[in-house]
Design goal:
Cyclic Phosphodiesterase, Chain: A; 30% strand; 2'-5' RNA ligase superfamily protein; five-stranded antiparallel sheet
Length: 221
């Protein structure tokens, strides 16, 4: 992912975010949030690269930094924890998490991609990928035409934490590349992620923020 994404960005391929709205990106998702001090360390990197990229981009702070497990559907505004599909997604997440221990990842390396700049996350075992696959299997095992599921491409992707999403037409590509190369092998340490959250997204304060809908503890192992 890292080399291909950098090459695409260096060649001028940039896909700025647009306003969060019905039918677009940022639908109901399952995520991990970063714990403890590491989220503040990563937020510091986000502020740095945000300043380098220029004004108008979405800079993630300690409360909005996350790793996406999967996205279940396109954006719907104002959904609540009692929404029927939210309950279905929560049940799939809970079933998928049964028996799994906390996820352990190493945060190492920074790189640009067409939508932003990310810290790469390296799983210490197959727990994170197993959870992702189980969610998909749980949804596919349901019944009826209203049976959504994460896409295959989303299931197959790498793990990462976006620092910045590009959201303005002006981006200093050269400066971002230089900053990423300077930080390229940044070691941010190991993290233990004991819970997955089901969230919706609100656009506030120049970024997008997760709004909790459900939470599932990983207590197996």
């Amino acid at each position: 992912m890292r080399v291909r994404a950098r090459d695409r960005f260096a060649a001028g391929e940039v896909v700025p975010e647009v306003a969060v709205g019905h039918g677009g990106r940022w639908g109901i998702s399952a995520i991990f949030r970063l714990p403890g001090q590491v989220r503040h360390d990563v937020a510091g990197l986000a502020r740095q690269v945000g300043a380098v990229a220029g004004p108008g981009h979405w800079i993630h702070d300690a409360d909005s930094l996350h790793l996406t497990i999967c996205t279940f559907e396109p954006h719907r505004p104002g959904v609540s924890p009692t929404d029927r599909r939210v309950r279905m997604f929560g049940a799939a997440l809970r079933a998928a998490a049964t028996g799994l221990p906390a996820v352990r990842l190493v945060l190492r390396g920074v790189g640009p991609h067409p939508r932003g700049v990310a810290v790469l996350a390296h799983p210490e075992d197959d727990t994170a990928d197993t959870l992702r696959r189980r969610i998909d299997s749980s949804l596919r095992a349901g019944s009826g035409s209203d049976r959504p599921g994460p896409s295959v491409s989303r299931l197959a992707r790498d793990w990462y934490v976006n620092l910045v999403h590009f959201a303005a037409p002006a981006i200093d590509v050269g400066a971002v590349l230089t900053w990423c190369d300077d930080q390229g092998e940044a070691e941010l340490g190991s993290v233990v992620l004991p819970a997955a959250e089901l969230v919706r997204w609100d656009a506030k304060g120049g970024t997008v923020r997760p709004v909790p809908l459900d939470r599932v503890e990983l207590t197996g192992g």
